[in-house]
Each structure stands twice: as structure tokens, then as C-alpha cells.
Amino acid sequence: MSSLTFCLVKRYLPHDEVLPSAIPEFVTSGLGDQTYTQYKFKKELTNTPLTWEKSKSWNFGLDASVLNGRVDVSAEYYITNTDGVIWNQAIPVTNGGYSSTEMYTMYNNIAETRNHGFELTAIGRPFTAKKKGDFEWTTTVTFSVNKNEVISLGDGAADFIANGTNTNDARTKWLHIGDMYIMRMAEIYLLAAETEQMLGNGSKAAEYLNVLRKRAARSTATESQWKLASATEDDIFDEYAREMAGEFSRWALLKRHNAFETRLEKYNKRAAKSFKPYHYNRPISAEFLSTILNSEEYGDNGYGQTSNSGIENFK
């Protein structure tokens, strides 16, 4: 009978505390003490209480070998807590603005984050070579899981994240760091409704729109106030306007339907007067055109910076 041996190779418990250099220059105090006049008109306001981000890391690990070295196991749990996460917050416009289109900003310590995970590696050797040239077989299996999350947003910091967008999701922790929206469920319903309407299935298009209209309706609204029996193209456009106000997908919608003129004429007659056909294409900056040698060939989508629009062959 073969013997069973267990050999504990090592165990470890390291700990680190890191202070990253995440604070840009000149955001904790002014410039020098010169007697002559000196200033810099900065978009970022000074924040004297600003401190370093502090990260504390722990690793718990275990390496083991069993069955006379035929099986090696390595397991590790790690956790990093970061306090004082730095974010460049927009300052409310009631305090003035950096320009007509930009607000002042200030770097603040606003959050605590936690990154933790577990890694497991097992190496098995079902067959080992007793002499050179013998058959041998090694198998490696790995498993890992990681979670990176915001665990605290304090002192009203959530009101400033992403310059005013709703941050309840981050506050309630169901969004993890690194998550991003690809598309919202509402957009799927809108695309489905648009497709059915273009195919002539107005009633089916209305079914998709009604899902969104029911969700958006006031609790006191009756079904007859929000429910559509059949959806027209204008119904599709109107629902896009409510769900995707200010978003690029609305511009793409009106472009693929060649509907800028009709929508502007209906809802913004002043803008309709200055609308030109080339406005269907996004402008190309003059600064970019000035940096390339073939700007005339490249074209500017019809905005007058070059004699060639660059879109003649794509009309």
C-alpha cells in the first residue's frame, strides 16, 4: 500500500499600504510667494484639505503539495481597501463658471473602494517519467474570482459624480467599478418598435412602445391615457425624444429616417430656417484638417472648410 504524505510548503500574510501620486500639481495650494504679480487662470480650484488616496492591501495564501508531489495546490485571497478616492468634481454653476460652456472643478476625496478576490491553482501529475524519454503528463487547473466595488460615497459626493447624472446605482453598490452601459433596455424596445413600424406593423410597434409608456406614466394615469393601439412614425420619434433626450442615438434615428427637416419644422421652426442638408453629417474640426496634408482630399463633410466635402461618392 502506498503512503499518503502531506507537505505544507509555505503560508504567507503580507500587508502593504500605498500612497499613490494621484494629485495633480498646484491643486492643494497657490503658486509660490513672489512679490511680483503672477497668476494662472485655472479651471481646477484649490482644495487645501485634499489628501492622498490610501490603499491597504492584504494577501492570505497557502501553497501545499500532496501525494508525494503529484498534486500541488496554491490558494490566495487578496483584498485592497482604498480610502479617499480622488475625483475631479464639477462646482455648481451658481458659483460662476470657468467659461460659457464649462464649470469650475475641484479635486476631492469622495469615496472608499474595495477590490478583493480569490485565486486557486491546482497542478496534477497523473504520469511522471521515471527515466528520460518516458511518458509524462501534467495538468493545470486555475480558478479566480474578483470583485471591485464602491463601498462608500460620503458628504454628498454622489451629487457630483459624472457632473449631475443619477448615481443612486453607485450609492446602492450594485454597480461595480469598470461596469459600463452598452445600451439600455429601453433602447431595445425602441429599436423593435421602429422596425415593426417600418414593416407596416403599427399594432406590434405599439406593443413595444406601451411597455415604456406604462413604466413612464404617472401612477394616477389611466390605461387609456398612455396606451397606444397603433404606432406611427411620429409616435416612434416622440418616444425616442422622451427616452433618449440629448443622446447620440436620437441623431442617428433622425438621420436614417431623413427626418431632421420635418421634426425641426414641427418643433423648432427657428432652427429649421438655418438647417442645411450637410448638417446630416457631423462636422470635422478645422484644427484637425490643418494638421493633415490631404485636407482637400479628406474633405470636411460640406461645412465649407475645404472645397471638397469628401462625401460626394457617398450620397
Helix content: 25-40%
The radius of gyration computed from the alpha-carbon positions, rounded to a whole number of angstroms, is 30 Å
Shape: extended
The span between the termini is 83 Å
- Helix count equals 10
How does the helix and strand content classify structurally?
alpha+beta
Mean pLDDT: 79
Q: Beta-strand percentage? A: 25-35%
Regions with little confidence, pLDDT below 50 for 5+ residues: 1-9, 26-30, 162-174
Please trace the helix and strand order, writing H or E for each element. Answer: EEEEEEEHHHHHHHHHH
Q: What's the β-strand tally?
A: 7
Largest sheet: 7 strands, mixed
Overview of the molecule:
By secondary structure, the chain is of the alpha+beta class. The protein has a domain at 6-171. Helices cover 25% and strands 27% of the residues. Helix 2 (185-198) packs antiparallel against helix 3 (202-216) and helix 2 runs antiparallel to helix 5 (233-243). The protein is extended, with a radius of gyration of 30 Å. It starts with 5 loop residues before the first strand and ends in a 17-residue tail after the last helix. Mean pLDDT is 79; it is low at 1-9, 26-30 and 162-174.
For this entry, give a set of tags.
315 residues; receptor; disordered N terminus; 7-stranded mixed sheet; 7 strands
